[in-house]
Amino acid sequence: MGHARTGKLIEPRGDNAALLAIKAALGNPYHFASWTPDYTCCDWYDVDYDDSIGRVVGLSVFQDGNIMGTIPDVIAGLVHLQSLMWHHLPGISGPIPPAIAKLSNLSSLTISWNAISGPVSSFLGVLTKLTFLDLSFNSLTGTIPTSLAAIPNLSIINLSHTRLTGSIPPRLLSKSADQIYLWLSHNNLSGTLPAEFAAANFSHLNLSRNRFTGNAPGLFGRGKELQYKETKISP
Ligand SMILES: *[C@@H]1O[C@H](CO)[C@@H](O)[C@H](O)[C@H]1NC(C)=O
Ligand SMILES: *[C@@H]1O[C@H](CO)[C@@H](O)[C@H](O)[C@H]1NC(C)=O
Ligand SMILES: *[C@@H]1O[C@H](CO)[C@@H](O)[C@H](O)[C@H]1NC(C)=O
Ligand SMILES: *[C@@H]1O[C@H](CO)[C@@H](O)[C@H](O)[C@H]1NC(C)=O
Ligand SMILES: *[C@@H]1O[C@H](CO)[C@@H](O)[C@H](O)[C@H]1NC(C)=O
Ligand SMILES: *[C@@H]1O[C@H](CO)[C@@H](O)[C@H](O)[C@H]1NC(C)=O
Hints:
The chain is 5% helix and 31% strand. The chain contains one helix and 16 strands. Strands 3, 4, 5, 6, 7, 8, 9, 10, 12, 14 and 16 form an eleven-stranded mixed beta sheet that branches. It has a three-stranded parallel beta sheet with strand order 11-13-15, with no helix packed on it. A hairpin with a 2-residue loop joins strand 1 (3-5) and strand 2. The protein binds 2-acetamido-2-deoxy-beta-D-glucopyranose (6 copies).
């Protein structure tokens, strides 16, 4: 197979097979009709192919109520992925699969607006290149794992509308980021805010609709992007 593009013969090693395995695991929904062995995966819907390395680096599956099942373990076969999105897929349920931890080059992970349940698994902490994590609008339960604090450059986090409990782990925020975006609204989070919040440079912070307590020194009067409404935090 393989076809010529920019003068090179393209046959992504293993990526076609991994994508076809994902399609099969989901029962071959129409959404993936363009994923056929007749074409190389650089032309497939939802697939981001990087010509310079000849591999699939992005997969964005979104907005389709007819895709049913769980996020397939065979996703682990897309070893070069840097960006992965499962968004607005109400038929996608089950837990976040541990296979995602094998995608060590991921910098952006979005699993939002689905019916995903189970915990925000601590194995996500091995994805040390993550800068963006959006798990919002799911049915996740349990606490925010402390392992996320081991990800050095994680600076955009959206865990809003996910039914989480417990407190915010210390050092969750990136130490190096110029700008931090954190959405935690509509959970059942509690406890006090980590001390480092006082010095963090938030571009957006939304803690609304939780059960936080105590003071948030340094956070108030910094601009209208910071939203605490309906928490028990007082300035
Ligand atoms: C991961 O990224 C690094 C740096 O961009 C690259 O050298 C390496 O080949 C990538 N590994 C995989 C499995 O894509
Ligand atoms: C984190 O960001 C710094 C500065 O941009 C970079 O040098 C470093 O390699 C990044 N670390 C990881 C694990 O991606
Ligand atoms: C995170 O979720 C909030 C809604 O709670 C939304 O306004 C925001 O755009 C989301 N951010 C990202 C980066 O997805
Ligand atoms: C804080 O963020 C603003 C933009 O929101 C940026 O202009 C500024 O340089 C940042 N400051 C620091 C100390 O990173
Ligand atoms: C939040 O947690 C408290 C204490 O565990 C519980 O009583 C309450 O029902 C929870 N609220 C929601 C909306 O889940
Ligand atoms: C923060 O959450 C509240 C409550 O859901 C919402 O009204 C507000 O628009 C949110 N702000 C941002 C910046 O997302």
